[in-house]
Amino acid sequence: MKKFHSTNLSGVKFLVTGGAGFIGSHIVDYLLAHGAFVRVLDNLSNGYHENISHHISNANFEFIEGDIRDYAVCENAVHEMQYISHQAALGSVPRSIENPILTNEVNIGGFLNMLTAAKNSKSLVKFIYAASSSTYGDSAVLPKVEGNEGIPLSPYAVTKAVNETYGDVFSKVYGFHATGLRYFNIFGPRQNPNNPYAAVIPIFCSAFLEGKRPTINGDGETSRDFTFVDNAVQANIMAMLSLGIEKHEVYNVACGDQVSLNEMIRELNKLSGAAIEAIYGPERKGDVKHSKASIEKIGNALGYTPTVTFAAGLKTVFEWYGNRNQVNSAKKE
C-alpha cells in the first residue's frame, strides 16, 4: 500500500473503534506498519478476531473487547489516545429497516458516547468518524456534493445524518472539531460474504467463484461509486494528521465515478472467464438508485486522490476471495 503520511508515527497513539472489522482492520494494518501504537475497541459483533490476530504479539498493539454503547468503556478506550478513527457502527440499510432500535442504539447512542469521551479527553488531537453516502438520501443530483443533501431513505441513513448533526453541534457548542468521512460503497478483502447483511461485491464474488448466478435487486442499472478500501485508509490517515481544520467538516470518500451492477457482472465474467448471467429480483427498500461523488472538497483540503480504481480493486478482491476459498478447502481436507 502506498504511504499516505510524511510525519514520523513511531510512538504516536491511535484508537481505532471497530478495528477488528473490515475497514477498521485495514487502518490498523497501516498504522502498525508505520510504527504507531494502536488500540482497538471492538465488541466482535461485526468484526472478527482473525482480522487482527496477526497483531496480537506486537507490543504496539492493544485490543479491548467492549461495546461503544457503554460510556465507561468508551472513556477507558480513549484514555491517553492522541488520534481516534471511529469506525464502529451497525451498517446495512436492510438491517436498519429490520431493527431500527438497535441501529439507533449503536449508531447514535454509541457515537454520542465516543464523541463525548473524545471531547473530554486531555490527550486527544483529532477525532475522525465514518460517515456515509446514505446521508444524501433522495437527492437525485449527481455528483453528490457536500452541503447538498436530500432526505434520508432508511433508519441507517437517519443515524448517519444525526452523527453529522452532533459533530456540527459539538463544534459550535464545545469547540470540539470532529471530521466525518462519507464513505461511498467501500469494498475490499475481509468483507464477509456469508453475513446476512453482506455488501454486494463479496456476495457477487463468492457466487462467481462457486459458479452460481448472483441475484440483483432491480434491473441492474443501479449504480454506485464503488471505492476500494485502500482509498478509505488514505482518507482516514490524511484526515487524522491534517492541520488547520477549525470546525466540524465532512468529506466524500470515493473515486468520483459510478459503476452499475450490470457492469460489475460483466467485469466479473472477464475476471473469472465465465459466462454467468444474473437473476433479477425486486428493488430493495430504502436503496438509492444512483450514486456518484464529487471528491473535489477532500482533494483540495487533504490532498486526497484515489490510488486504486474500481477495476483494479475488483481484480484484487476477486483474487483474494479465490485464494481464501482454496485455503478453506485445504483445511477441510
Q: What does this protein structure show overall?
A:
The chain has a domain at 13-187 and 227-254 and 288-307: Rossmann fold (3-Layer(aba) Sandwich). It is 40% helix and 15% strand. The chain has ten helices and 13 strands. The protein has a seven-stranded parallel sheet, with helices on both faces. It has a two-stranded parallel sheet with strand order 7-10. The chain has a two-stranded parallel sheet with strand order 8-13. Helix 6 packs parallel to helix 8 (261-272) and helix 6 (200-209) packs across helix 10 (310-332). The chain is globular and about 60 Å long.
Can you name the CATH architecture of the domain at 13-187 and 227-254 and 288-307?
Answer: 3-Layer(aba) Sandwich
CATH C-level class of the domain at 13-187 and 227-254 and 288-307 is: Alpha Beta
Radius of gyration, CA atoms, in whole angstroms: 19 Å
Beta-strand percent range: 15-25%
Strand sequence of the main sheet, in spatial order?
3-2-1-4-5-6-11
Determine the N-to-C terminus distance.
33 Å
- Along the chain, the helix and strand elements come as EHEEHEHHEHEEHEEEHEEHEHH
Major β-sheet, in short?
7 strands, parallel
Which structural class do you get from the secondary structure elements? alpha/beta
Shape designation: globular
Quaternary status of these chains?
single chain
Q: How is the CATH topology of the domain at 13-187 and 227-254 and 288-307 named?
A: Rossmann fold
- Measured as a percent range, the helix fraction is 25-40%
Number of strands: 13
Low-confidence stretches: none
Question: Could you report the average pLDDT, rounded to the nearest whole number?
Answer: 93
Tally of individual helices: 10
In CATH, the homologous superfamily of the domain at 13-187 and 227-254 and 288-307 goes by the name NAD(P)-binding Rossmann-like Domain
